[in-house]
Amino acid sequence: MDPLLDRAPFGFLVIRDDGYVELANRTLGGMLDTTAEHLVGRHVDGLLTTPSRIFYQSHFFPILKLQGRVSEVYVSMLSTNGSEVPVLLNAVRIEAEGAPRSEWAVVPIHTRNEYENEILKARKAAEAASIAKDTFISFVSHELRSPLSAIMGWANILGRGDVDPAQLKRGIEAIERNAKLQLKLVDDMLDHARLASGKLSIDLSPRDVRPILEGVLEGIAPTAHARDVSIVREVEPGPMEAKADAERLQQVFWNLLSNAVKFTPAGGRVSAALRRSDSWIEVVVADTGKGIAKDFLPYVFDSFRQEEGRVVRSEGGLGLGMSITRHLVELHGGKITAASDGPGMGATFTLCLPAIVSIPAPL
Amino acid sequence: MYDRVPSVDREAIGKRNNVKISGRSDGQVMLFAHGFGCDQAMWRYVAPAFEDRYRVVLFDYVGSGKSDWTAYDPERYSTLAGYARDVLDVVEAFDLRGIVYVGHSVSSMIGALAAIEAPDRFEQLVMIGPSPCYVNGPDYVGGFERKDIEGLLDLMEKNYIGWAQFLAPVVMKNPQDPALAAELQASFCATDPRMTRQFARATFLSDNRADLGKLRVPSLILQCSEDAVAPECVGRYLAEALEASTLRQMAATGHCPHMSHPEETIGLMKEYLAAHA
Fold first, then answer.
1. Where are the beta strands (DSSP E) in A134-279?
2. Which residues between 164 and 203 in chain B have a beta carbon less than 8 angstroms from any beta carbon of chain A?
3. Which ipTM value was assigned to this complex?
């Protein structure tokens, strides 16, 4: 080989149509952690990663054969130590004396590869977000329509005027119930929009967390009772003061407890613990309900994510609740985590708020 | 399977699937179906060898080559059944019968699905580098793990970011530009990234093992040596699972023997067809 080509600042390779290496330069040997001599006689499949092998066979080789050249093809080669070497290839095919072969120029692109990986990752994330938003819009339309249909149906019945008092009462209750449901959906959407744009402000002042949690437990008790779900309180004595927005913290507790009750079958149990842990106030809501699949666990607090569209529809809600909850906890300077051993194994949500450390008054 | 074309619309299907017919007009039909990643141009080293005796029919799947890409339906082409429907549309529109079907790679299984649905139309199937399932299973070696297929999809994406070969989307956006259109005409295996990505998923994540027992049409399996896409154990699996199949191990290496070793491919096909005439 020409010494110039042998030490050129790019890899050079001559490959027969049957895929065997006829010639390689010293630079390529170095790139693949071996010598040029060791590359000769090897099959191209052994020099490429598995995905690159498929791409070579399905795209690269047919086009090279038909067009006589390919340029700027990205593949990953394999060095002898097993690491991947991302490269760009230009290749030409030469039909000479009945022994066609192709000549490859191989340029390693480590930095550019990392940059392109980032582009690819960002594009995938954008595509996933776009799909999730489309799904969300269809959920919203469905969820907003259901209570409206009920309201309109009852308004129509009551408008006829020939209803007895019992029917009138039932109708008004149904209208109120469905209007409240719709209000909750709209509130969730507004909260989500405000949080996303950073426009949700909260009013933090020293509060005792205990009565806020107990108020929510009182409020959820009738629903839990109706669903035959028992509620267990594990509240430690002592001060539980944190800087909090009482209304928003109530919303957080309500989201956690109503979810726990909603996803726990009859005969199940929901526990709510309040305790002091170092400089944190810890609230742990655990249930014996449907649990969370391992794959979905990292996305529990994401917007527009639903584990299963079918289940969400049957349970009601837009699936924004947990995303709002996390944002609200973070606005309080706290953190929230979810844990589950999998479907059917229940779930545990642990919320930590920074405690106000009371300094004893000087004697 | 998808609904049949409402009427025998030869011109529409001919245009949609870029159908090209050559050879003996009174000869037996030999229908060639290209594999994933390319188009009917890949048959140029093999198909002419059969034109003296056969009526040779070539076509592109919708989304590949010079087919009508506006006819692309993401739902239909999300599974191999949609591609088998393309084969049957061509078969019905051109009233093809007594067919010798030649499929490369994924088109082997697409042909099998078509022949299961319309067995009376097909005489023989020639499968070049076939695989009924590419991903390894508990009692099955397909050659790949799922992460390999995900890696392939990423690799394809990266190549579509800057690869001049894939100029087709540019042409699609500028259909009036004669220079671009001429460039596309002169190019091979032009493809739209979205459609190819879906074809890759439909191909490499398919599992047609359960369909093999339903195929009654005799088949020739051409198994390459050192095939990185369809290993030899897959060829043996198919030969055992398919009724009336003949497995021929080729000296040819790689996954495209009809392009790299056309003489051996033509020879084995002729030998089989003569013996099974």
1. 205-208, 230-235, 241-244, 269-277
2. 164-165, 187-189
3. 0.82
